[in-house]
C-alpha cells in the first residue's frame, strides 16, 4: 500500500510535468470507422440527451477528473470537486480509480470508493451528478447492455422450474 502523502506529492509533481508536456490529442475517428471495426482505445463515455462524448484514455498513465481547467477530464458540475478523482493505468488493460478526498465522493456501479479500486470495462463511474461509463477498449461500437437489464433477464430465467 502506498502512503497517501507520498502518493499525492508524487501525483502532483507528475501531473505538473504531464501538463507542461501535454500534446493536443488526435481527433476521434469518424462514426463510420468505429461501427465497422473494434476501437481498442480505453475511454470514458458520457451519454447526453443529444449524443455522446468520449474521453479517450491514451498517451498517459494518469488522468485527473474534476471541475478545474487543470484536469485532464473536465466535468462542469457544481457537485464535482475541483480535483475529484484520478484514473490510473498500471498495466495495459488494468485501470484503477482513486477518489481525491472529494466532498461528494466517487462511485463505481453505485458503491462508494474509499480506497484505490480496480475498474473493469462496462463499469459506471459517478462523480457528483455525472455518470460516465468506462470501457477498456475490448468492446466494439455496440456497447454492452446495462447490468440491470442483464440481471433482470437472468432472474427471470432462474425462476423457471427445471424440467427433466
Describe what this molecule looks like in 3D.
This protein is an alpha+beta fold. It is 22% helix and 30% strand. The protein is built from 3 helices and 11 strands; from the N terminus they run ααβββββββββββα. The strands form 2 sheets. It has a 6-stranded antiparallel β-sheet with strand order 2-1-11-10-7-8, with no helix packed on it. It has a 5-stranded mixed β-sheet with strand order 4-3-5-6-9, with no helix packed on it. It is globular, with a radius of gyration of 18 Å.
Write the layout of secondary structure elements.
Layout: H1 4-21, H2 31-36, E1 43-48, E2 51-56, E3 62-66, E4 73-74, E5 85-91, E6 94-99, E7 106-108, E8 111-112, E9 117-119, E10 124-127, E11 130-135, H3 147-158
Parallel strand pairs: 3-4
Antiparallel strand pairs: 1-2, 1-11, 3-5, 5-6, 6-9, 7-8, 7-10, 10-11
Structural class of the secondary structure composition?
alpha+beta
| Uncertain runs | 32-37, 144-164
What's the order of the H and E elements?
Answer: HHEEEEEEEEEEEH
Rg from Cα:
18 Å
Strand order of the largest sheet: 2-1-11-10-7-8
Instruction: State the distance separating the first and last CA atoms.
Output: 52 Å
Number of helices: 3
Quaternary structure state of the chains depicted:
single chain
Strand content: 25-35%
Shape: globular
- Mean pLDDT value: 75
Q: Portion of residues in helices?
A: 10-25%
- In total, the number of strands is 11
